[in-house]
Design goal:
By secondary structure, this protein is of the alpha+beta class. The protein folds into two domains: 66 residues, Ubiquitin-like (UB roll) (Roll); 99 residues, Translation initiation factor 3 (IF-3), C-terminal domain (Translation Initiation Factor IF3, 2-Layer Sandwich), CATH 3.30.110.10. 41% of the residues lie in helices and 26% in strands. It has six helices and ten strands. The strands form two sheets. Strands 1-4-5-2-3 form a five-stranded mixed sheet. Strands 6, 7, 8, 9 and 10 form a five-stranded mixed sheet that branches. It starts with a helix and ends with a helix.
């Protein structure tokens, strides 16, 4: 049987080594009792004694069905994970002498990426002696960032790293909301 991390985090029934515990659960008020008495109460109710707060004095234990308890924790984690927004980084590559048609084609794709809530990494790749045309690369990236101002904002000035000059453009706040709405439409 596969062991998961959640069930390893909690001490259950005979694994608990405290002398006294504070018991909580549905159907009775919290109180401090000996471990033996707490185990007896849980056994009479046909439930498990689960230590939920080992650092408290005395440790806090809940009387609950352990498998149901783990199931509910996993369900909460899954819901929290589903609510997280994942941002992808899309790359767009230019050459120092990129033509207007190619530029416009890549600009249109970048607009779509930003509207979907993705970041755009645009870079000019210099090959061989084309590194002499750094100004052309800077001009292309500056023009690219300016054309995308209404869809996203430039995070930093163009940086030359080796043979690449790079900028990052992050979407404006409305882009992530549109992406979530599209995902919800797809789920229905």
């Amino acid at each position: 049987m596969k062991k998961d991390n959640l069930s390893d985090q909690y001490q259950v029934n005979d694994e608990i080594r405290a002398k006294e515990v504070r018991i909580v659960g549905e159907g009775f008020e919290p109180r401090v009792v000996s471990l033996r008495e707490a185990l007896q109460i849980a056994d009479n109710m046909e439930l498990d004694l689960v230590m939920i707060s080992p650092n408290a004095v005395p440790p806090v234990c809940r009387i609950v069905d352990f498998s149901k308890f783990i199931y509910q924790l996993k369900k909460k984690q899954k819901e929290a994970k589903a609510k997280q927004v994942k941002i992808d980084v899309k790359e767009i590559r230019f050459g120092p002498q990129t033509d207007d048609h190619d530029y416009n084609f890549k600009l249109k794709h970048a607009m779509g990426f930003l509207q979907n809530g993705d970041k755009v990494k645009a870079y000019v790749f210099f090959r061989g002696r084309s590194i002499l045309f750094k100004e052309q690369g800077e001009n292309i990236l500056a023009r690219f960032a300016k054309d995308l101002e209404e869809y996203g904002k430039q995070e930093q000035a163009p940086i030359l790293e080796g043979k690449r000059m790079t900028i990052f453009i992050s979407p404006k706040k409305g882009g992530a909301a549109k992406k979530d709405a599209k995902q919800e439409e797809g789920n229905e």
